[in-house]
Amino acid sequence: MEHIGVEERRARIGRRHRLAPSCQAADPVQAAESLVVLHATDPATVHLSVAARVPGSDVAGTERALYDDRLLIRMLGMRRTVFVAPTSFAPVIQAACTDDIAIKQRQLLVKHLTEAGIAGDAEASGLWLRAVEESTATALTLRGSATANELSADEPRLRSRLAMAEGKTYAAQPYVTSRVLFQLAAEGRIVRGRPLGTWLSGQHQWSPAEKWLPGGLGIKPPADGARATLAQAWLNAFGPGTAADLQWWSGWTMGQTRKALTAVNAVEVDLDGAIGYVLPGDEAPEAEVEPWVAFLPALDPTPMGWKERGWYLGEHKAKIFDNTGNVGPTIWADGRIVGGWGQPDSGEVRFKLLEDVGADTTAAIEAEAAKWTAWLAGVRVTPRFRSPLEKALSQS
């Protein structure tokens, strides 16, 4: 069994994640392909992740790829998370992950509808949901594109309220609107389009999938084949990694994970005592890259690519991640996290190093901070999930 050590794993990040200066991506699509997908739970992450990997990129260029050329698409995928994926790869993600999520979420929504007494028993709630979905989809087709509020005006049943966590201090009665739209999106019937407002907005126009793309999301492969294709893409970007890493990243069962690894003939390697996997022929050392530093946004795909993170995170987890496992803005040097960054009200990029990186690397990080301050041009990005270090650096 070949041994792949920490230094080799870190070297792969610089090249494969397009972070070393000589390895950067040509455009937003290539950046996304290199990482399989871009995280999009926080809308700012998409633009900042691209900017970290595509020299000279700007918000307009990423928006053009998303909303004009439609070479990238925002969709639900692994771990019930919203991602931006290369449009050509969307059918694979849909078949490998999203179809299963849609089934489970429908069952959960029917349960919540029943508990709220909206339509009677589970069978009646299921029929009610189907009727509302079809009415909503028809309204969207007639409009061409619409906001959630506009669709609620067309289909008043979307304003029915659920009863969540009754009797608890955090009890709530949300409208069913977002859940119905979520379900239609999870089944590939509707697509999130342009944001309402700026690139920081989390509210989007919705469009029928067939209107957004000719033929909708495209022809899906069989689920087992799709999972194998997705595992291959993950290994190409994030390998070596363990089965637990891939299971966490994909949201699959361990059985599905092992089956996918077998299907791609994944090769076992020694990760300092743990069993990891690479694609056949990928055991050899990565070609060296020049020293590099990078400022990555909260929820960037690189730090969120593995479950086991000690080899690039060191002892910094408590300051860099929040309590639920979401990473904040990070500073990287040669494949490891060495600090974090944030913005006070003034909009400048502040940073703090968590270890001694030497004078040359510190100077490079200072220059990178100045570049990010200029790129953001006074726009303040507040992550949806905030790490302790980011909070501290953002205090004016």
From TrEMBL:
Keywords: DNA-binding. The lineage of its organism: Bacteria, Bacillati, Actinomycetota, Actinomycetes, Propionibacteriales. One of its GO terms (molecular function) is DNA binding. It comes from Kribbella alba. It comes from the Bacteria. This is Winged helix DNA-binding domain-containing protein. The keyword DNA-binding applies.
